[in-house]
Amino acid sequence: xxxxxxxxxxxxxxxxxxLVLVVTAGFFGGFFASNVGTIGFEQAFNNACSNLKxxxxxxxxxxxxxxxxxxxxxxxxxxxINLGQLCNQKLGRGTVTSTASASIxxxxxxxxxxDCVVSCGCPRPA
Length: 126
Description:
The chain contains 5 helices and 2 strands, in the order H-H-E-E-H-H-H. By secondary structure, it is mainly alpha-helical. A two-stranded antiparallel ribbon has the order 1-2.
């Protein structure tokens, strides 16, 4: 019976070592980190809202002056996108496709801007 335990232990040790090597190679090869560097929509929106609150004290006039880097579907790289464009997508008025996307002030009007500010957690402007 002791002769049978050594090969089974060795097989388990080799299997664990191979698994560790495959995971390590995948990590360093970029398999697990394929989306590192891209930022999700919700995170981009939250970052932009945070900037609006801290830098502009929730001022509605500054929505199109708050920018964050975001890579939307169909974009080849992350680009600076303003909060107005992100709000359009958040409020269901379109999707961000590039820096040329229409901002909230051109498509949402006054109510769109107010809805945007509220969705950031700011008080509704008068």
